[in-house]
Amino acid sequence: MxxxxxxxxxxxxxxxxxxxxxxxxxxxxxxxVEVLVGKSETRRLxxxxxxxxxxxxxHMVSPNFLPTxxxxxxxxxxxxxxxxxxxxxxxxxxxxxxRRIRETGAxxxxxxxxxxxxxxxxxxxxxxxxxxxxxxxxxxxxDFRMPKKNRCASFLMNMFTRLTSLGASRRLALSFRAMKxxxxxxxxxxxxxxxxEVFEQEPTSGEYIHGYMVNSGFSEYVSRWxxxxxxxxxxxxxxxxxxxxxxxxxxxxxxxxxxxHEFLRQMAGCKAYASTAxxxxxxxxxxxxxxxxxVPAHIEQECNAYxxxxxGGGIIDEGFNLDKLLAFAxxxxxxxxxxxxxxxxxxxxxxxxxxxxxxxSMQEMYMVEEYV
Length: 372
Known about the structure:
This protein is an alpha/beta fold. The two termini are 26 Å apart. The chain is globular, with a radius of gyration of 20 Å. The longest helix is centred in the last third of the chain and has 27 residues, at 345-371. Helix 5 (115-124) packs across helix 6. Residues 360-372 have low confidence and may be disordered. It is built from 14 helices and 14 strands. The protein has two domains: 2-193 and 344-371, Rossmann fold, CATH 3.40.50; 198-334, 3-Layer(aba) Sandwich (Rossmann fold), CATH 3.40.50.2000. It has helices at residues 13-27, 47-52, 76-85, 87-104, 115-124, 151-164, 196-200, 219-228, 260-268, 279-287, 299-310, 322-331, 336-343, 345-371, and strands at residues 2-8, 31-39, 57-61, 108-112, 130-134, 170-174, 187-190, 209-213, 234-238, 246-248, 253-257, 272-275, 292-294, 314-316. Helix 6 links the parallel strand 5 and strand 6.
């Protein structure tokens, strides 16, 4: 089976999911022919992704959330206005996706929450079946309960999620826990898609707090807390490419450029984890048994954080108040059921991939027989 990936390049979650799935497919005799990554001019691909993906990587311009002027949370209105100005470029990107699907001879397209993939399938109707993977598809599930605040933003996010999966044969919803499939929305519930490196870590309980912030403006919160608690070691990763690889503020506060091997190593040895609530890193911390503080940067991360709290995986805060995290860590207990669920992912996900390709091929065979 020849597979083409299209990946939304914002943050690290979709990128690490693509790395994991490519490895799984290759180990089972399938070929990932190409990886198309949608990104803005303000982001660059992390080195860990470029090093880890074996298939050729190609870039295209695609929509993404723009941060507020303080570079913390996403600015929805600013993001929409900017995207409207970029529509001609986005149309070119859709033409490019359609052309690459055809020229690579892909039997299957897997979309990691890239908006332009769904729109490509709506306007151009490529032949290969489309499967969409992401935690966001869980929010469409009939039994999922959204956070009660921000109803308008929740509606817009779900509309965006539907647009990413226009024309999809199946939506694979990554979930913290097992749930029944939702056939009305063509949803299969699958475990988090963690990379092999996560399973190879040996968790220990260190003295430092580990963290990740998708927008570097959150560093002001961390620095402010650090001034009041200089005795607590802090090691935070950020997307701040203008800085040096490691920025040492003093003996107990360090900021790191995003390097995924170092990120996982430090997560495995930390006392607790603070994050802007990206699904992937929350799952990694939960699997490694770490208490979590989540500071959502936009509505999608608000849903991630809310969902994680339902299973006792962490707590939510508006601005990296690490006192709350340290207090939570005193009573936190890891969830062994979550670890079992995660370890079942390889079989479940591969079965879904092969099932829908086989189903599509069978339909084509029947169509040919009927025509003859």
